[in-house]
Design brief:
7-stranded parallel beta sheet; alpha/beta; globular; 7 strands; Rossmann fold
Length: 254
């Protein structure tokens, strides 16, 4: 059996109607996992789930919309997954928000609060809903999609970077708490990826040139290049890794 085989596993992926989340869902389904597609609106989630069911067989994917800012929505996401599949083996906390682009001196309190609540506290909520049945089974993989922004400063996405740095520490703390139960918690830290979420950073040619001119690979990434790291962390290949952050950035941080 392949080290990357996910047959029999159930994965919940937030923010999976497009971009990095969708790529992760597609690649996990390709490796045999059952996947739960979740974002704020049902229709785009259902479109992805339908495509995966058509490609990999009926019952491969379900759509469960959830707004990460709602604790009740996240609880419903977990409850509906348990009803449909009976367990959650893999949780990918991918959804995030960044409502402000500019220096931190100009950010409003509600904008800063929203960033921290959606990018850190919501991850904490969802993990706490999922982890009890992982602890009971003595097996589970939790993956938080952070960012290389959590490793550096920025004059335009500083608050976002603060939240992503907090995600690294959230993973470390939870890895310590749940390690004795064989529940692993890790982060992926993407560099600049061509997604709608990061459009403000790559759509402008001047910004894109600045971002890639000192990057060893001289380009930005695509969502599928993050999905491989998620499959690794979710599968047998990653069972001795916990509390870590995998940087996938084309060499930007070096």
């Amino acid at each position: 059996m392949s080290l990357f085989d996910l047959t029999g596993k159930v994965a919940v992926i937030t923010g999976s109607s497009r971009g990095i989340g969708r790529a992760i869902a597609e690649r996990m389904a390709e490796q045999g996992a059952k996947v739960v597609i979740s974002s704020r609106k049902l229709e785009p989630c259902a479109e992805v789930a339908d495509a995966l069911n058509a490609a990999h067989g009926s019952g491969t994917a379900i759509a469960v919309p959830a707004n990460i800012s709602s604790k009740d929505d996240l609880k419903k996401l977990v409850d509906e997954t348990m009803l449909a599949f009976g367990k959650i083996d893999v949780l990918v906390c991918n959804a995030a928000s960044n409502p402000y682009y500019g220096p931190m001196s100009g950010i409003q309190d509600d904008q800063f609060r929203k960033i921290l609540e959606n990018n850190v506290i919501a991850n904490h909520w969802l993990i706490q809903f999922v982890v009890p049945q992982m602890v009971e089974r003595k097996d589970g993989a939790i993956i938080i999609v952070s960012s290389i922004g959590g490793l550096r400063g920025s004059p335009v996405i500083g608050a976002y970077n603060v939240s992503k740095a907090a995600d690294f520490q959230l993973a470390r703390n939870l890895a310590v708490e749940y390690g004795e139960h064989n529940v692993r918690v890790n982060c992926i830290a993407p560099g600049l990826i061509k997604t709608d979420f990061a459009r403000a950073l790559w759509e402008n040619p001047d910004t894109l040139k600045r971002a890639t001119s000192t990057t060893p690979l001289r380009r930005i990434g695509n969502p599928d290049e993050i999905a491989g790291a998620a499959v690794f962390l979710a599968s047998a290949a990653g069972t001795f890794m916990t509390g870590q952050s995998i940087v996938v950035d084309g060499g930007a941080t070096i």
